[in-house]
Structures are given as structure tokens and as C-alpha cells.
Amino acid sequence: AACVRERCGDGVVNNSGAEQCDDGNSRDGDGCTAACVRERCGDGVVNNSGAEQCDDGNSRDGDGCTAACVREGCGDGVVNNSGTEQCDDGNSRDGDGCTAACVRERCGDGVVNNSGAEQCDDGNSRDGDGCTAACVRERCGDGVVNNSGTEQCDDGNSRDGDGCTAECRDEIPVAVVVESRTPQVADATVGATGATAKEEPLPVVEQAAPVAAAVAEAEPMPAAVPAIPQVAVEARSAAVDDEGIVGDAVSPPEPVPVPAPLAPEPAPVLVPQPVQAAPTPLPQPQPAMALQTEPEPPAPLQPQASPAQSNPRLPPTAPSPVPRCGDGHVDAGEGCDDGNLSDDDCCSSLCVPAKPSSTKTWNALGAGLGGTSTRAGSVVSAIAAGAGGVFAAGDFTQAGDAAASRIAFWNRVRWSSVGEGFDDRVLALARSERGQRLYAAGDFLHSANVEVRRVAAWDGNAWTALGEGADASVRALAVQDSGVFAGGDFVSLSGQGAAHVARWDGQRWSALGDGVDRSVWALLVVGSDLFAGGDFAKAGGRPAPGVARWDGREWQSVGDGIVGSVRALAWSNGVLYAGGEFLTSGSGRVLSNVARFDGTMWHSMSTGAGGRVLALTVAGGAVYAGGDFTTIGGVSSARIAKWQDGAWSNVGAGFAASVTALAEYNGRLVSGGRFLRVGGVSAPRIAQWGPADCVSVPGIAAHP
């Protein structure tokens, strides 16, 4: 009316279409923008009238502001993909797979998943405290000793008579072994007593208590009457060693009185004195095993102890009076003796060396690691194949008959210690590319009197520190060129900040960019790239759930990632494999604890595994997986399985307890873990799959 041109912000809406609104100002956020356009959700302008809490200029959920312009928060049912939420189930309850803090629940986080995936969760990954590392309630007969005091032993079955009762109590063997001696012809020195002039002591398992010798008086008998045999009785009583393992204490033989017949003319009879048993000397630690760069011929073989002598739970049998084939000792006229009369192995039923069947079976590596005790915590966590043998490490203090503190070496004949070992468990091993150094990592702080703080190197003579070590557990190692990578729980090595992953160049530790935001459990070098697996959601500040790749300069995601905990990695024919405790990929594809990456995305391997996959390795063109699963790909498979030609299959009878380490050596698959037996064979915590290895049989050199 005053003939003034209308403009945006004059409070008058121009109905020609140039303005949708005009609120008389040039401010945004009040319903009408400074351009006189009505504000709406998704236009990038927050309406301050209260209709919008946020506005990020799009209509997508999962970026912090919903499509309805409401701020996303934990518990709203929308997963914030910026990395602040791993999940969001629309509530603030724990125990349903997603915590009240929008973190995916996993075994070991201290929250029981009520969906049925967990029976318990005590916030750690240890067995023996009532809840296993797989979040299953421990019970008598599960093969794990409950350290709360309710179990003295647990051998994985409900049978009595095998050293541990069906109620998981130590059996105390009390045995009486009677040895009858054949009458002998009297000589001028001894007389007609039926005993030789020299008595041999019976075998001893534990040091006998001193017993005073006593002389028995015999009743008179006629000189013409044939001698009556003496009968020696070996009495044993229960004894417990310093690890709580029940053995036997042996008392010296005592003559049993035998009534003499009446006779008119008695003759004096001499009765031999009981001989006090000499204590069996304790096994001495084997000398340190130097690293080998070339295979060396096996050392001279020694006769092996019989199973009864090597098992402290079994009462020893009396020695056979006549050497025989099959007694485990190479006697005159025998070319070998493996303690059995089978014709299917390295030594025939006639004790003649034989070429065994090529059929693959599980075989023990000597007497194994950690002894036959079911002591909770004993485990083989890492295996590294080397020239001339296998290094194995974990939490044990015995290797075969030798003392070995948490690391040992198998040279295809016997176990030996590797230097002084360590004061706490070893979690990872790696050998340098030329085999001149062995690296070990874990929770340890010392090797003898040398401070090594969780990561150390063996040069064939001694363990040395790598700088000042790490401030928390080192769980993974990998070697590339002249350097070694370490991953774990740490955030600092030698005082140098390094978020869960770092590289040692021979002189100092250095960080790999900004590292990752949570623990690393697995490392794998492929060419110039390093792959890391773990619990993390970001690498180098970027989203990279579960798996990430370091190209030497920066971190990259690996496809859409894996949501959960990746514990093992392997590479075969251009394909990356991952195992662990996870359900889906980052895009929601169901994987179930084991997966393969084809360069673009993660795929399931059949229907996945029914439990955690803790170890992966490649041997003979196949991928092997070990863990605590009992089914995989729809196949019943006890804690170990083989992936080949797109399908899973069994590897023998499998194991009764977790498999935690795998490696290939000399054409055979070597497996380590918590088990004591495999396929009916005693194999404490370590075994190999393949044809029989004849080199360890008494009296035999290796057969081709």
C-alpha cells in the first residue's frame, strides 16, 4: 500500500512464490530461514522452536541424528555408526546381547548373556574359577580343575580307577605286589635257602622311608628236604608330591615266614637281609636348546621308561624276570622295542624296525608338557616350528621328564628347556625369518634374574630384553624383515606410547600411527602388509572393527570388518581367514566365529563354528581351526577341524579340552592346548597329526 518493494525479512510473505514464509528477521532456527524458506527436518538447520533436537541435513539414522531430527542416544534402538555404539537394542538392560552402554556383550566381560549363549561370565578368560574361558559353568568331569576347593582333580570323565574319581577326588593307590622267586640249588656259601647270594632291590617310584634291617630266624628243617622259596612282599603307601599328585612310597621287601616241616635232624638256614631301596634320583633339567638353522641328526636314543614308571598315578609293576619283546626296552637280539606288539607302527611285533602305515593319526610328543596332572591353568598357548624341532610355550613347569619354565623345545626325540624360561605365562612365539632368533611374549617379567617385561628374544644362548618391555600383556607377535611386531593390551613400550600395537627395529620400539582403540589378539604378516585382529572398533582413528591392515604408513579397514573379538588370523591362496568370538560382519552378515575375506567382503564358512575359534593355521593346502567348539559347519568336530574344498571335516577323534595353538612342522599338524589325551593316546597338552614319527622309538633311527 505504501508502494515499497517487499523483501525477505520484512515480515510480509510474498505470495508470488518467492517466499514460503517471512518472520520479519534474518535468523535461522525459528521455523523460517533467513532465505524465507520453511525449515524442515533434514534441511541442515535446527529448528529452535523445540520441534527438532538436531538436523544433520539428511534423512539417515545411525549418524548421531535420526531421520526424525532427534539426537541418537544409547538405548534408542538406533546404532550410532560414528563408533560410539557397537549395538543398540532399544533398552538399558544388560544381559540381552547389548549392554546398557551399547557395547556388544562377549564372554569375559562380566555380564551374563541371557540369550543362552552364556551360562556364566566372571569377567576373565581363565579356567578353574567356576566359569570357564568359554563362559560355561565348570562341573566335575569337564577336564578343568575348579580351584575353589570343590575339586582335587578333573580328568574329563566320570570313571573311577584312573587316578581321579567320578567325584573329582584324588585316588590314592595302595598296591601290594608279590614277587615269587624260583627255588635255587643250594651252594656251599648260602645253603639250601632258595635265595641267591645277592638280592636286587625292587623298583622305587618315590624315595623310600628308611627301614631298619631285621634278621628273621628260620625254623630248623632237615638238610635233605628241598629248599622252600622265599616270597618277597613289596608294600606301598600313598605319598603326595609338592604339586599335590598322588604317587607311591615303597618300603623294602620283607621275608614272609613260611612254616617248616617237622624233621628229626634240623639244619641251620641262612635268611637274606632285606635290602633297603635306594632313592631314585630326580630328573635333572636338560641343557638349553640352541636355535638351529639347519636340521641336525637326532641324538643317540635312550631306552624309554614304561608307561607305569612314567605315570605317578599308577603303581609300578615288578620287573619282568625275563626280557621280552614289547616291554619298552631294547634288549639283546632286538632291533627296537616300542612297548607294544602291534605290527602297524614303527616297530613290529617281533621287535624289528618296520615302516609304519601312511595313515594319519594323533601321536604324542614324548611325555608331553605339564605332566599328567589336571592342575588348572596348565596350557600350551603358542607353538613355533623351527629347524630340527618345535618350540612350545604357555603355562607349565615340566616338559617330558625335564624341568622347563613355560617354554620348551622338542627335537623329535626328547623335550628340553630353553634357557631359564620365564616367571609367568607365555602367550605368543615368533621366529625370525632366518631362524636366528626366537621371540616370546606374554605376562612374564623375568627370565631367571634378567628383567624382560613381557617380551624377550632368544639368541640360542640366553634370553634378552627388547628395550624396557611393555606395560601390560603382549598377546601376539609377527616378524617382518629385520623387525618384529607386537600386539596386546599395552599402551606403552619402553616408555614410548603405542596403542596396543608396535614395531621393534632391533634398537627401539615405535608406534604404528595412532594404533587401535582396544586389545590386539592376533598379528599376521602378508608381504609388506601387517594384519591385526582383536577387540577394537577403530584403527588409526578410523572405523575398522575387529580386523585392520597396516600398509607401512597408515591403517586401513578390511572390508566391512568383524564385530566382536578376533583371536586368530591365517592366509592361504590370496584369502584371509579369521577366527574368534564373533557373530556378524560390520554390515550384519552372519559369520559365527570363523570367516574368510575375499578382498571385498567377509563371508561365512558354511554355518560357522558352535564355539570360539582360538587358533588357525595352514598345512598341506588346508586351513585348520582349533578352539573350544564341538560343532562346525554342521559337522560334529571336537575342538579341531579342517576346511578344504569349501567344507569342514573332522581331524581324527579330536580333543576333550580346548585347542589354543596350531602349527605345521615336518609335514605334520602340531596342536597345543589344555587336553591330556587324544584318540585314546596320552598326549598332555601337545600332539601331532600325521603318520607315526619313528625317530622317537627306542632303537630306531627315522624312517623315510
Salient structural properties:
1% helix, 4-stranded antiparallel β-sheet, 704 residues, 46 strands, elongated, mainly beta
Q: Could you characterize what this model shows?
A:
The structure is a single chain. Helix content is 1%, strand content 29%. With 704 residues, it is mainly beta. The longest helix has 4 residues, at 307-310. Strands 1, 3, 4 and 5 form a 4-stranded antiparallel β-sheet that branches. The protein starts with 175 loop residues before the first strand and ends in a 14-residue tail after the last strand.
Sheet of most strands: 4 strands, antiparallel
Radius of gyration from CA coordinates: 35 Å
Distance between the amino and carboxyl termini: 111 Å
Measured as a percent range, the helix fraction is: under 10%
Relative strand content: 25-35%
- Number of DSSP-assigned strands: 46
Compute the number of helices: 1
What structural class should be given to the helix and strand makeup? mainly beta
The low-confidence parts are 173-320
The shape is elongated
Rounded mean pLDDT is 77
